[in-house]
Amino acid sequence: MVEIKTEGEVRSMRAAGRVVAQALAAARATAAVGVSLRELDAAAAAVIREAGASPAFLDYHPAWAPSPFPGVVCASVNDAIVHGIPTDYRLADGDLVSLDCGAFLDGWCGDSAISFVVGAADPEDLSLIADTEAALARGIEAARVGNRIGDIADAIGTFARSRGRGVLADHGGHGIGRAMHEEPDVPNEGRPGRGMKLRPGLVLALEPMLIRGGTDDYRHDPDGWTLRTLDGTRAAHSEHTVAITADGPLILTAA
């Protein structure tokens, strides 16, 4: 069942979204050559704890996963697309890092993701990140009253394909609120004018996951969580929690 939020509930979700934005900012500020993924995780965890919030990812255990997730953030590096576990791996010059973070505050969830390069960046990686952020921006722009889920999916996917990017198969955005994952699903490709009509109070997590080499397929690491590109090329992930309002889309996970 799709849950429509009141204006007050959207304000509460905005507070949760700010915590997520601050946690991601702290993790990104910590990232440098030689810093471990666990240190990025600890930086995000400290912000969430100090805000009186709780991490949404830590110990999350969906039916398909072999074990509960062991981190506060998903930290995916280079050809890891999403769901990377924060380990003792130390960042190297030129690594492309995608961080995904969620948090609950007063019973409401925020969810967001960023990608960036540590040290000297390959211009192609910067282009991939820019395309992923632009695809998200187009999806957000389509998140308007009277449009449909398919309009968001088409806006994201059409732009990604125009840039020659792969779109991670089988994964996309989702509703969000009192639970991290709620109905409806929001694909990153689709047909305009199809799917559920967007109404004020609907809150969605939009998240393009683009692959530099243009393929869509992936493989699982032995840890059962990390998804990697099949062709070995790099990937980027960008996400915001967005409320549909009468005045247009409202980004709840902005800083």
UniProtKB/TrEMBL annotation:
SUPFAM superfamilies per UniProt: Creatinase/aminopeptidase
UniProt keyword terms in alphabetical order: Aminopeptidase, Hydrolase, Metal-binding, Protease
GO molecular function: initiator methionyl aminopeptidase activity
Catalytic activity entry: Release of N-terminal amino acids, preferentially methionine, from peptides and arylamides
EC class: hydrolase
EC numbers on record: 3.4.11.18
Cofactor dependency: Co(2+); Zn(2+); Mn(2+); Fe(2+)
Residues involved in a divalent metal cation 1 binding: D100, D111, E239
Residue positions binding substrate: H83, H181
Peptidase M24 domain sequence ranges: 12-246
Cofactor remark from the record: Binds 2 divalent metal cations per subunit. Has a high-affinity and a low affinity metal-binding site. The true nature of the physiological cofactor is under debate. The enzyme is active with cobalt, zinc, manganese or divalent iron ions. Most likely, methionine aminopeptidases function as mononuclear Fe(2+)-metalloproteases under physiological conditions, and the catalytically relevant metal-binding site has been assigned to the histidine-containing high-affinity site.
A Pfam family recorded for this sequence: Peptidase_M24
Binding sites annotated in the UniProt record for a divalent metal cation 2: D111, H174, E207, E239
Keyword Disulfide bond: no
The protein's role, per its UniProt record: Removes the N-terminal methionine from nascent proteins. The N-terminal methionine is often cleaved when the second residue in the primary sequence is small and uncharged (Met-Ala-, Cys, Gly, Pro, Ser, Thr, or Val). Requires deformylation of the N(alpha)-formylated initiator methionine before it can be hydrolyzed.
Subunit organization: Monomer.
Membership in a protein family: Belongs to the peptidase M24A family. Methionine aminopeptidase type 1 subfamily.
HAMAP family found in the cross-reference section: MetAP_1
Protein name as catalogued: Methionine aminopeptidase
Organism: Rhodococcus daqingensis
Gene that this sequence comes from: map
